[in-house]
Every structure is written in structure tokens, then in C-alpha cells.
């Protein structure tokens, strides 16, 4: 099965570029099949990673929480199963 992990954070005021660079610099314990990074209004950063997994709740490397002063709220995380 192919899983997509979604990680989304909102930067503290005027720190969007810093959060984006932080997300780009993160190294995972292993490489996903694919990884994309997006930015959105309100200094939000979104990272999607695609993985091959045996189960929906498989243990996969995820981006950590940035330092609290870099974000306005806890990171949002979701998992999606690709349906093709």
C-alpha cells in the first residue's frame, strides 16, 4: 500500500521563510518514495511524504515539531492511503 503523510505548520509572525528552510533541512531516518514541500498564505508550510507500507498504521519517519517559538500552534499531521 502507498501511504501519504501530511505535516502542516503555521509559522510565528514574520518567520515563514525560516520555517520553510527548517522544513527543507529536516533529514528523515530513511528516504520516502517522494517528498514535496509547499507554502501557503499565513506563513503555513506543508510537507507531504509518500511511503510504501504494509499497514495504515506502519511506523514511518515523520518530521518533528519545530521549536515552539517558530510556530503559532502545534503541527497538524494526517495519514492518507492512496486509492488508484
**Spatial strand arrangement across the major sheet:** 2-3-1-4
The mean pLDDT is 96
- Run of helices and strands: EHEEE
- Using the alpha-carbon principal axes, give the shape: elongated
Number of strands: 4
- Straight-line N-to-C gap: 11 Å
Weakly predicted, low-confidence segments? none
Structural class: mainly beta
How many helix segments? 1
The major beta sheet can be summarized as: 4 strands, antiparallel
* C-alpha-based Rg, rounded: 13 Å
Strand content: 35-45%
Helix content: 10-25%
Protein name: ABM domain-containing protein
Can you describe this structure?
The chain has 84 residues and is mostly beta strands. 12% of the residues lie in helices and 37% in strands. The chain is elongated and about 40 Å long.
In short:
This is ABM domain-containing protein. This protein is mostly beta strands and 84 residues long. Helix content is 12%, strand content 37%.
Amino acid at each position: 500500500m502507498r501511504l501519504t503523510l501530511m505535516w502542516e505548520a503555521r509559522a510565528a509572525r514574520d518567520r515563514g521563510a525560516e520555517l520553510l528552510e527548517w522544513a527543507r533541512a529536516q533529514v528523515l531516518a530513511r528516504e520516502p518514495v517522494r517528498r514535496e514541500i509547499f507554502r501557503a498564505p499565513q506563513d503555513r508550510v506543508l510537507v507531504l511524504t509518500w511511503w510504501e507500507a504494509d499497514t495504515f498504521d506502519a511506523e514511518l519517519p515523520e518530521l518533528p515539531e519545530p521549536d515552539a517559538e517558530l510556530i503559532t500552534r502545534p503541527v497538524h499531521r494526517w495519514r492518507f492511503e492512496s486509492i488508484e
